[in-house]
Structure formats: structure tokens, C-alpha cells
Design brief:
This protein is an alpha/beta fold and about 325 residues long. The protein has 2 domains: about 100 residues, Rossmann fold (3-Layer(aba) Sandwich), CATH 3.40.50; about 150 residues, Isopropylmalate Dehydrogenase, CATH 3.40.718.10. Helices cover about 40% and strands about 15% of the residues. The chain has 12 helices and 11 strands. Helix 2 packs across helix 12 and helix 5 runs parallel beside helix 6. The protein is globular, with a radius of gyration of 20 Å.
Length: about 325
């Protein structure tokens, strides 16, 4: 996806959305385990994604509730496989099991709490964990920015350690590559642009940049610490005297913690009117993790991004051997 394909800067804010769907048009629908789609919103999103040829959903949850949700959403679910489960916890476990057994290639959250679904995903013996830390990435089209923008992590990792952040960065770079963003520019955010031992996020940022130098992180250009303004504004970077290939041109924003990431992402969506798609990476398969507050376009775009991610095999990058 080139900048012109997905950016709203050229005057068409939703061109990125159509470009996502166009890239998926030649792909077969991916069988998707949908955990507990027991309200009209979540079930309707799964059906709409199926109608667009993105997914082939397996609906997992209490049958009566799913059929009631279908009536409320005015959708026909007779063509879909329905796997009864007594409650949301069981539905999450069953959805994960379907992925583990190879019967589904994607996992999608329905009308249940994120913690319920991710609890099953994270189980050491029955879940979907890999060597890579699991993290969430928002892909955004922000009016006026001129290029796609990835924000991570705003949904999964509350207070990530340095090693967690290594995987968070690598997951985002992998997604950027799938979005046809070659050698993406990664800004490691903090409140200031200089390393301050009293501000751990600046120390982590500097360490992540050195990890990239040592190829513990590959596929992107890192710089940090950078404040938000000089990460996305050439003028702000120039005023601060920052000379960097990343400053003012960031493709990926890596936030210090979940709270800052969640606030940033929601500001871009609700105040800057960014279009967005979100996906969880680092598990055996991409996970479509949407919110009840998400627009329909966000839900469908998230499915499209997950479908594209499912077409590649992401190899966990291991640190080089010492000695």
C-alpha cells in the first residue's frame, strides 16, 4: 500500500479503506472463530465481513442468544457453522481450541470482555502463544498526515518491559511490511527527546534503538526518545534541532504504556477523525479485537488487516547469540 493509496491527504479520507478491501478481493475468505457474537453489533460485523468475502465465520456461543442477536441485526446466519457453548468463557476457550486444531485461521472477539478472550489466548498449554510477546497495533489514516500511521500498544500490554517493547516494535514492523511500507520509520515516544534516567521510557527508547543496531529488531529504522510533536512534525523536529530520518516522518509510534497509547489512539479517532483498524499480533494467528465503540468501517477494516496478516508466516526474531 503506497501513501497515495491509503492516505486521506489527497482529499479522499476513505481511500485507505477501499484499498484494504481491494487487496483482499482476490483472496479466499479465511475461516474465523468468532467468540460469543451474542449482540447485534458483533454478530452484524461478522456477517458483514463474510458478505464482503473477508471471512467465513464459525459462530461460537449460546445458540439462543446468537439467534436472538441475528433477529435483532436482521441478518441470516443459516449459512454459517454454529458451535454451541454455554457462556462467554466457554465460547472463548472453544474458539481458541478451533484455531489450535487448524479449523480456523483467525480469531475474532464477539460480545465478551477482552480479558476473557485474551485469558484463553494466553494459556500456556491450550492457548495461542508463541515466542513473541502478544501486542495490539492500530493502523490509522489521520486526515492531513499524509501517510498511514501505526500506533502500538493501546490495548494489551499495560506496562511493558524493555523486552516486551522489543516484541511490540517487531510486531508493528511486521504489520507495516504487510501494508507495503518498506523499512518503516519507528518513533519510540516519551515526553522529551533526551535520555533521562529518571524517566524510564527515555532509557527504554535508547536501548531499543541500540537493539535495532544489533539486529535484535529488524526491518525498520528506529529513533527515540522522541516526543509526539517532533515524531510527526518536521517543523517541530527542526525547531528542537533534531536531526533524524524518523523525526517528522514516523510511520510507527511506539508508546510507553497502555494508558498513553489508548489516549493517543482515541484522540486520533474521535478528535482528529482518523479511520482505524486494529489487530492483535504475536499469537499463532492474528486476532480481530474491536470495541463496542468502533465504527462499522473500523470493524471491517480490522478484519481486512487480519486477513492480509494471515497470508504470511511471521517468524519470531531471536536475539543473536553472545560470545
Amino acid at each position: 500500500m503506497t501513501d497515495n493509496d491509503v492516505s486521506g491527504a489527497a482529499g479522499d479520507q476513505h481511500a485507505w479503506y477501499r484499498a484494504l478491501l481491494a487487496r483482499c478481493a482476490a483472496l479466499a475468505p479465511v475461516v474465523t472463530a468468532v467468540a460469543h457474537p451474542c449482540d447485534a453489533l458483533s454478530l452484524g460485523a461478522a456477517v458483514e465481513a463474510a458478505d464482503l468475502g473477508l471471512i467465513d465465520p464459525i459462530l461460537i456461543g449460546p445458540e439462543a442468544k446468537i439467534r436472538a442477536a441475528a433477529d435483532a441485526a436482521k441478518v441470516d446466519i443459516s449459512r454459517f457453522r454454529l458451535e454451541p457453548a454455554p457462556h462467554s468463557h466457554a465460547a472463548a476457550a472453544q474458539a481458541v481450541a478451533l484455531v489450535r486444531s487448524g479449523q480456523a485461521g483467525l480469531l475474532m472477539k464477539g460480545a465478551l470482555h477482552t480479558d476473557e478472550l485474551m485469558h484463553e489466548v494466553m494459556q500456556p498449554d491450550t492457548g495461542l502463544r508463541t515466542e513473541r510477546r502478544i501486542s495490539h497495533v492500530y493502523l490509522m489514516d489521520v486526515p492531513g498526515y499524509g501517510r498511514p500511521l501505526l500506533v502500538t500498544d493501546a490495548a494489551i500490554n499495560i506496562a511493558p518491559s524493555l523486552l516486551d517493547k522489543r516484541d511490540i516494535v517487531q510486531n508493528a514492523i511486521d504489520l507495516a511490511h504487510v501494508m507495503q511500507m518498506d523499512n518503516p520509520k519507528v518513533a519510540i515516544l516519551s515526553a522529551v527527546e533526551t535520555v533521562n534516567p529518571q524517566l524510564q521510557s527515555t532509557v527504554d527508547a535508547a536501548a531499543l534503538c541500540k537493539m535495532a543496531d544489533r539486529r535484535q529488531i529488524v526491518g525498520g529504522v528506529l529513533d527515540g526518545p522522541l516526543a509526539f510533536d517532533n515524531a510527526i512534525s518536521e517543523e517541530a523536529a527542526r525547531d528542537k534541532g533534531i536531526v533524524s530520518p524518523v523525526a517528522g516522518h514516523a510511520d510507527i509510534l511506539v508508546v510507553p504504556d497502555l494508558v498513553s497509547g489508548n489516549i493517543l489512539a482515541k484522540q486520533l479517532i474521535f478528535i482528529a477523525h482518523a479511520d482505524a483498524a486494529g489487530v492483535v499480533l504475536g499469537a499463532r494467528v492474528p486476532i480481530i479485537l474491536t470495541s463496542r465503540a468502533d465504527a462499522e468501517r473500523t470493524r471491517i477494516a480490522s478484519c481486512a488487516v487480519a486477513v492480509l496478516m494471515s497470508q504470511i508466516e511471521v517468524i519470531a526474531v531471536k536475539p543473536p547469540a553472545h560470545g
